[in-house]
Amino acid sequence: MTYVSLADLERAARAGLPGEIWDFLAGGSGTESSLVANRTALERIFLIPRMLRDLTDTTTEVEILGRRAALPIAVAPVAYQRLFHPEGELAAARAARNAGVPYTICTLSSVALEEITAVGGRPWFQLYWLREEKRSLELVRRAEDSGCEAIVFTVDVPWMGRRLRDMRNGFALPESVTAANFDAGTAAHRRTQGASAVADHTAREFAPATWESVEAVRAHTGLPVVLKGVLAVEDARRAVEAGADGIVVSNHGGRQLDGAVPGIEMLGEIAAAVAGGCEVLLDGGIRSGGDVLKAIALGASAVLVGRPVMWGLAAAGQDGVRLVLDLLADEFRNAMGLAGCDSVSAIRRLSTRTLGTADDPGK
């Protein structure tokens, strides 16, 4: 089959995965209003391209958290990737390494973080706050010792949102898929009608993070610390005060608070508020290189891409993930040139319009 867009890979993944595993990947919380809004918000944003620019030396390279990357893209943390392919995180990490972009290892990875970092490349580690602070900080230390380049601290999961697809399916992990980074017991494998075993497991293991948790992580590592899940301007400013090196503007892909504003809606305001005090990244709803261009024009230094990478993994393993990243690279470079930009920094000088609002000049 020929894949010319991420939507092609989405269809292949959906056709190849069992229904309840597809629902685990694709679903959101509640009525999925935030999940849908992530795409709707991006689709309403339009760019004002510039013409007659010299594009001879166009480059997509960028610096993210002090290191060069081939694209302003990182692979987002996604739990239990062996649900989608037997090689799971190893296949995805190898593809990210070969594409020259960071790969974020999830606390709930189905392969131990040390095995994933052994692949090489640009590994980051995503942290969920566990009930015992000591265990959380042990994960931070393991990540640093094994070669991770940043700690991405997810702050929007005091507990899991009500993901109704999983509840209706009575979703539980198969015995072959486990949380490989710590002894998690059997809760995630215990199927109960009308309930998500994964949600039950996280309720047992996770604790709500606080600003004191951020201070503990910041004091425990010399790595850059990025707070993922920030939507309020006030929280973004406080993140800078707390010493965060970056924030990810995100509503967790519509999987936490149903009704939370899409990250792209808050991106420009947050980027202006932090005024360079830390890097600002965007997560949620990115489905093309054009979407990446929009995010950077609105103030992001880079974006995180999650579900599309898993579509590639499910469709064709490592080769599928690499195809996703290659498609994004081709689309991004094409969009850059058509917008009159020869570099990522030039994109930040583009203007945008959001149609259907007061910003719409046709109103």
Automatic annotation (TrEMBL):
Needed cofactors:
FMN
Please indicate if the UniProt record lists Nucleotide-binding as a keyword. no
Q: Which family does it belong to?
A: Belongs to the FMN-dependent alpha-hydroxy acid dehydrogenase family.
The entry marks the following residues as binding FMN, namely: P77, V78, A79, Q126, T154, K228, S250, D283, G284, G285, I286, R287, G306, R307
Keyword Oxidoreductase among record annotations:
yes
Give the stretches traversing the membrane: none
Q: Residue ranges of the FMN hydroxy acid dehydrogenase domain? A: 1-357
GO terms, molecular function: FMN binding; oxidoreductase activity, acting on CH-OH group of donors
InterPro entries according to UniProt: Aldolase_TIM, Alpha-hydoxy_acid_DH_FMN, FMN-dep_DH, FMN_HAD, FMN_hydac_DH_AS
Q: Which Gene3D superfamilies match?
A: Aldolase class I (3.20.20.70)
- Give the protein name, as stated in the record: 4-hydroxymandelate oxidase
> Keywords of this protein's UniProt record, alphabetized?
Flavoprotein, FMN, Oxidoreductase
Classification from the root reads: Bacteria, Bacillati, Actinomycetota, Actinomycetes, Pseudonocardiales
> What Pfam families does the annotation carry?
FMN_dh
> What residues make up the catalytic site?
H252 (proton acceptor)
The entry's glyoxylate-binding residues are Y128, R163, H252, R255
